[in-house]
Each structure stands twice: as structure tokens, then as C-alpha cells.
Amino acid sequence: MGAFFFQLVLEKILKSIVVKKRGENPSLTHDLVKLSSEAEINLTEEQKRDFKEITSYNIEARYDDIKLSFYKKATKEYAKKWAIKCKEYYLWLKEL
Fold first, then answer.
1. Sign of CA dihedral 55, 59, 94, 14
2. pLDDT band for position 93 (50/70/90)?
3. From the CA atom positions of the chain, what is the Rg in Å?
4. How many structural domains compose the chain?
5. Among 23, 6, 24, 29, which residue's Cα sits nearest to residue 93?
6. d(CA 32, CA 51)
7. What is the value of pTM for the model shown?
């Protein structure tokens, strides 16, 4: 469940950056890479990979047929790694 909230926080902050920079509503998407583009943020390839992984939390947390595979993937080590990364991305985006 925590992974879903990581994704949600990053999605909302990216959408707020779009509004601030462009003065318009962002597209109706959960895709963090697409939202970064709309926010005129140039991501590195590593950041794009990370944002794609984090975006998957939104989908995987909502649909029962794939929750089990995500549950198996989300070991304690996996969750700790991604919690740290998400916090770092949040702080970075907040500074923008």
C-alpha cells in the first residue's frame, strides 16, 4: 500500500509543477515520465527508468489480478530501496 502513496505523492507534485510553469491543467494520467515532460523537466535515463517503475505502483496497487505479483516483488529490501528513492525524488521535485 505504501508504494501506491509514493506514486501518488510524486504524481501530485509533478501536476502542481505543470500548473505553476504552464498555467494549465496537466493531462489526466498517472505516468510520471509523461508528467515530467509536461512539467518541462528533463529526466536522465535512470530517472526515466525509476519513474516508470514508480508509475507501476499506481496500476499494481489498484487491480486485483496483478496485486499478487507485485506483493511477491515487494520484499522488505525492495520497499526500503524504493522508499528512499521516492523520498529523494520528492525532495528534488519540491525544490523545482
1. positive
2. very high
3. 13
4. 1
5. 6
6. 6
7. 0.84
How many other CB atoms sit within 10 Å of the CB of residue 79? 14
Cα–Cα distance between 96 and 81 in angstroms, integer?
23
Cell of 46: 535512470
Domain with 20 in it = 2-95
Distance CA 45, CA 77 (A): 23
Cα-Cα end-to-end distance for the chain: 27
Vertex 31, ends 66 and 37: CA angle to 5°? Answer: 160
pLDDT in tens, 38-69: 999 999 999 999 999 999 888 655 667 777 77
